[in-house]
Write a structure and sequence with these properties.
The protein has 140 residues and is α+β, with helices and mostly antiparallel strands. The chain has two domains: 2-94, no CATH class; 101-139. It has a three-stranded antiparallel beta sheet, covered by helices on one side. The radius of gyration is 19 Å and the shape is globular. It starts with a helix and ends with a helix. The longest helix has 29 residues, at 2-30. It has helices spanning 2-30, 50-53, 58-67, 79-90, 125-139; strands at residues 96-97, 101-109, 115-124.
Length: 140
Amino acid sequence: MEVMRQEFRIGIDQISKDQALLPSRLYNTSIGNKAHLRYPDGVQAQVIIRDELLTFTVLQCQQLAFVLRLPALLPNVAVQDRRQQIASYLGVFIWCYSFSYILLVALVPRPAGANIYVGVLGLDLLVFCRLCFLSFVLYT
């Protein structure tokens, strides 16, 4: 019975932590690439914009992750994964490029003239280009 109470308290604590992050995450989700990111209450860190996060080095990512109290990643983890960890915690979307894989949000034209966001995650670059070409041909 005591174990269940302890697990319940841990769950409640996690929900409280997530709720405390909501205001900054909602703000960061709604801002543009050149606006300053908002940190959770009590975090004193250098003010950055979303575009700067894309160019962070491993050392910069480690320093910011430490200030944000994020779990440490293994030393051999790619810098893109470190950036993604920080971005996910802060509630921002970032684009990560590599030679064979791409993680981005593309604007796809629609017949009505409106645009929709389509998430393309981990597709081979050639497959992604074909999808974009087909979308362009089909909707124009």
